[in-house]
Design goal:
7 strands, globular, 7-stranded mixed β-sheet, Methyltransferase family protein, Rossmann fold, binds S-adenosyl-L-homocysteine, Methyltransf_25, single chain, alpha/beta, 42% helix
Length: 254
């Protein structure tokens, strides 16, 4: 079981697989007022940077599940490196339908809401692991500027403009689901560069090291086209943020 190999190639050197930078995760961890010993569940935990740094900085206990074998191995190595291997556990597996045995203080899905069919389904899935009074974290894109054409939306790797909302609409949608938005930290364009531009050097070096690989043509063509696509579309039109939600009192789901 694994994710498509192209991601394991282009993001092999990333610690954070989204437009957040280390300072943004630090800001978020502080904003959530995490107590030592708090449990944090992370579906689609990638290379584990959020859980490992929060374990180091706030003493949390973390469980991450990710379908990439490479990212999961990197997460385990990072936990050793930061001296938090006793506090965090990384499971290589499918997070779709994953419910924790023990209720958690924070239940997160940071940039992988497709695992439960979108934001609404993912919030519902995370709720099944959350203790009463706990916090849900959703990392999700939104339109920084509404694309004037469908072509521009596709340039951002969206299927259509309707895939994402503008920020006030995304915020309103959490209310419609029955949740209070209690905190948020937003990525910025420099963060998008860290996520996207870091792939370019990785691809260039991978091409030099793997001239006979089946994916050479695909990686070659991405390295040629991606910088311009990123500058024209993603960097200008796409926003991204992590949203902290709590169910509105009286509407809590079981
Ligand atoms: N939350 C991480 C990773 C975000 S990228 C971070 O912020 O760095 C999306 C992640 O979802 C990738 O690590 C990918 O391997 C993982 N993923 C994709 N489908 C998945 C699934 N069905 N179950 C678990 N993880 C999945």
């Amino acid at each position: 079981m694994d994710i498509p190999r192209i991601f394991n190639i282009t993001e092999s050197a990333h610690r954070i697989h989204n437009p957040f930078t280390p300072d943004k995760f630090a800001t978020l961890g502080a904003a959530l007022r995490l107590e030592p010993g708090a449990r944090v569940l992370d579906l689609g935990s990638g290379s584990g940077e959020m859980l490992c740094t929060w374990a180091r900085d706030h003493g949390i206990l973390g469980t991450g599940i990710d379908m990439s074998q490479l990212f999961t191995e990197q997460a385990k190595r990072r936990a050793e490196e930061l001296g938090v291997a006793q506090q965090v556990k990384f499971i290589h597996g499918d997070a779709a339908g994953y419910v924790a045995d023990e209720k958690t203080d924070v239940a997160a899905c940071i940039g992988a809401t497709w695992i439960a069919g979108g934001v609404a389904g993912t919030v519902e899935l995370l709720m099944r692991s959350l203790r009463a009074g706990g916090i849900i974290l959703i990392g999700e894109p939104y339109w920084r500027q509404l694309p004037p054409t469908e072509d521009i939306a596709r340039g951002c790797f969206a299927n259509s403009i309707s895939d994402f909302l503008v920020l006030p609409e995304l915020i309103a949608s959490f209310g419609h689901l029955g949740y209070d938005l209690v905190e948020m930290v937003l990525a910025d364009q420099d963060g998008w560069d860290r996520y996207e531009a870091a792939k370019w050097l990785t691809m260039r070096r991978w091409l030099e090291a793997n001239p006979d690989d089946d994916l050479v043509e695909e990686v070659r063509s991405k390295l040629t086209s991606e910088p311009e696509r990123h500058a024209a579309y993603t960097r200008e039109y796409l926003g991204w943020g992590v949203f902290a939600l709590m169910p509105r009192l009286g509407l809590k789901k079981a």
